[in-house]
């Protein structure tokens, strides 16, 4: 553990120095030579610390030396950060030649000072100590603020990482931190707290912070002084639902790599100068429901890997807002991406092509077209072809009449949701997807029949004697709110005459049908699946079902909604109508938890059934 932390510190120094010295050769004379010296001294520090940990000798003089060494190391990081920040700032804004020369001289002097300080310290070969033990005892501190008397607790000047717990609501940050001793803090995190504000004085005193976690508080405003924390790498403001805007100075945090805003549903816009954060890797904006657009500068953040949501609003958003095509330069994007396209998009197809989604290694993609002109839907969706390794896809509010051609080519797709496709009359041939495990079809109001096209069966397949497997990995299947759906035809009986062997859904575990009031039958192939859980609810007509396996858990509910009485929406457990001639035989096979009531020409069984209902009509 000690070695890991030591390596982390030293490798960070070397990485920052090398990465940005290469880019700043024009800024620093003899940069390569100086950085080689710097690297050599860092290796000497690492060797001494490893020796100290092995021998584990405790001396007062050793502790003093390690204090000095530790302080110098942190100071080196701070200076490197300032160097790094200046380089990033010049990249983002551009700096006149005169200022570049001044900066060059400053950096030369700083590198020389580092070299002298480290050389003196590293000549002390007889110094040994358990550096890890020292680090744990002195640098990390947790403070609980449950009681009033915990305020202004004494904190050692050596503390670098502070956790504040149980800070009450309406108490500013300053009340709990003795700022005189906290100027060297690298990490400040609050847990189980509900602070409502951030004191400006606290921010101005914590300029060495790398990590600031103020998530799940009651913060309503982010002060402009936040921009003074130039070393900040990680800022977490998640779950502050009263926060409506971010400070403009946030754009000055050139070293920021992660900004978490998850659950900040009051935020309507991000600072327009977000494009300055060219070091940003992760921008988390899940559940920022009020966020209507993103600033166009985000398209310049070529290191960005995480962008959870991307609202593209071409009507109410500003002209400088992020356009769909601006995503094209963000080739490092990965993980999940939610694109919500609103308004009348000019040159819609061209913008979608520029987004180059096929070149981004996304695992999860959500596309929604709630207000986009429906005439553009087909072309836009066709142009938004994702990466071939996509695993989860949700497409909502699509008004086109056909599915995109690339959908059935997603060979690694595991989960698919088609939500409110109000223009399609037929389902796409999803049975061809080899690894699809979960499928939800929701709100496709024009679909009346689900047949061979859904399974992906072709005339060639049914006329040949070769075997095939359709939906080979599907485990969960759901159909919901398909108001016009009447028939589920399965394979249409063609395989019996063709001799072809077709296996359908051999891995199916559960399926659910909800609010499909006109559906009259379920396909026979379902009885050959290993399905274990069935849920059917919200229908009006009788449904013909196959024979279910004996160990199948089945819950079926029927809506008492009469077509002539639209206000009656109560649901009850389904009535399974059994022909009275088969009453005695069926009675013997029913489980004990059935509730029986008599009917004139049939037996009404109100049930939550867990076994088969052979030959039943629903």
What does this structure look like?
- Residues 184-480 form the Disease resistance R13L4/SHOC-2-like LRR domain.
- Pfam families: LRR_14, Rx_N.
- GO terms for molecular function: nucleotide binding.
- Residues 11-97 form the Disease resistance N-terminal domain.
- By secondary structure, the protein is of the alpha/beta class.
- It has two domains: 2-129, no CATH class; 139-545, Leucine-rich repeat, LRR (right-handed beta-alpha superhelix).
- 25% of the residues lie in helices and 19% in strands.
- The protein is built from twelve helices and 26 strands.
- Strands 9-10-11-12-13-14-17-20-21-22-23 form an eleven-stranded mixed sheet, with no helix packed on it. It has an eight-stranded parallel sheet with strand order 1-2-3-4-5-6-7-8.
- Helix 1 runs parallel beside helix 3 and helix 2 (31-55) runs parallel beside helix 4.
- The chain is elongated, with a radius of gyration of 33 Å.
């Amino acid at each position: 553990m000690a070695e890991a932390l030591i390596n982390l510190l030293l490798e960070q120094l070397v990485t920052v120095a090398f990465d940005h010295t290469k880019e700043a050769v024009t800024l620093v004379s003899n940069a390569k030579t100086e950085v080689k010296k710097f690297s050599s001294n860092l290796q000497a520090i690492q060797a001494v610390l490893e020796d100290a940990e092995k021998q584990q000798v405790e001396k007062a003089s050793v502790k003093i030396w390690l204090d000095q060494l530790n302080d110098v190391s942190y100071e080196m990081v701070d200076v490197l950060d300032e160097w790094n920040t200046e380089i990033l700032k010049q990249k983002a804004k551009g700096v006149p030649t005169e200022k570049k020369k001044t900066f060059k001289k400053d950096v030369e002097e700083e590198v020389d000072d580092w070299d002298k300080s480290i050389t003196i310290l590293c000549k002390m070969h007889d110094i040994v100590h358990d550096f890890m033990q020292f680090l744990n005892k002195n640098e990390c501190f947790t403070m609980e603020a449950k009681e009033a008397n915990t305020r202004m607790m004494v904190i050692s000047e050596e503390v670098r990482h502070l956790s504040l717990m149980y800070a009450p609501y309406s108490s500013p940050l300053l009340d709990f931190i003795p700022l005189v001793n906290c100027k060297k803090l690298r990490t400040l995190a609050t847990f189980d707290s509900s602070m409502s504000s951030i004191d400006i004085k606290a921010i101005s005193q914590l300029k060495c912070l790398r990590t600031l976690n103020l998530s799940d508080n009651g913060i309503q405003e982010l002060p402009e002084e936040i921009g003074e924390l130039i070393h900040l790498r990680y800022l977490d403001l998640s779950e502050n639902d009263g926060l409506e805007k971010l400070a403009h100075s946030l754009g000055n945090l050139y070293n920021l790599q992660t900004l978490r805003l998850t659950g900040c549903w009051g935020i309507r816009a991000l600072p327009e100068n977000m494009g300055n954060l060219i070091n940003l890797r992760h921008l988390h904006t899940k559940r920022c429901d009020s966020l209507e657009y993103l600033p166009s500068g985000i398209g310049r953040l070529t290191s960005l890997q995480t962008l959870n949501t991307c609202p593209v609003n071409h009507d109410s958003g500003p002209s400088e807002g992020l356009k769909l095509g601006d995503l094209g330069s963000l080739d490092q994007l990965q993980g999940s991406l939610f694109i919500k396209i609103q308004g009348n998009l000019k040159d819609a197809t061209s913008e979608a092509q520029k987004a180059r989604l096929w070149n981004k290694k996304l695992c999860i993609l959500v596309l929604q077209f709630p207000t986009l002109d429906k005439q553009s839907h087909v072309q836009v969706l066709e142009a938004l072809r994702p990466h071939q390794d996509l695993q989860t896809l949700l497409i909502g509010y699509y008004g086109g009449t056909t599915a995109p051609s690339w959908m059935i080519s997603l060979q690694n797709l595991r989960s698919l949701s088609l939500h409110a496709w109000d223009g399609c009359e037929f389902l796409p041939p999803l049975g061809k997807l080899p690894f699809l495990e979960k499928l939800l079809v929701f709100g496709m109001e024009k679909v009346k029949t689900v047949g061979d096209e859904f399974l992906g069966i072709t005339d060639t397949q049914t006329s040949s004697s070769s075997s095939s497997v359709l939906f080979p990995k599907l485990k969960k299947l759901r159909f919901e709110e398909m108001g016009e759906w009447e028939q589920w035809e399965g394979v249409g009986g063609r395989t019996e005459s063709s001799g072809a062997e077709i296996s359908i859904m051999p891995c199916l575990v559960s399926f659910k049908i909800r609010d499909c009031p006109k559906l009259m039958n379920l396909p026979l192939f379902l009885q050959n699946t290993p399905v274990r859980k069935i849920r059917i609810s919200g229908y009006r007509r009788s449904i013909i079902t196959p024979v279910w396996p004996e160990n199948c858990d089945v819950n079926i509910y029927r809506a008492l909604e009469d077509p002539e009485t639209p206000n009656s929406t109560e649901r009850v457990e389904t009535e399974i109508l059994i022909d009275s001639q088969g009453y005695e035989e069926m009675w013997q096979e029913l489980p004990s938890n059935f509730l029986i009531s008599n009917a004139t020409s049939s037996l009404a069984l109100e049930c939550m059934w867990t076994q088969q209902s052979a030959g039943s009509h629903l």
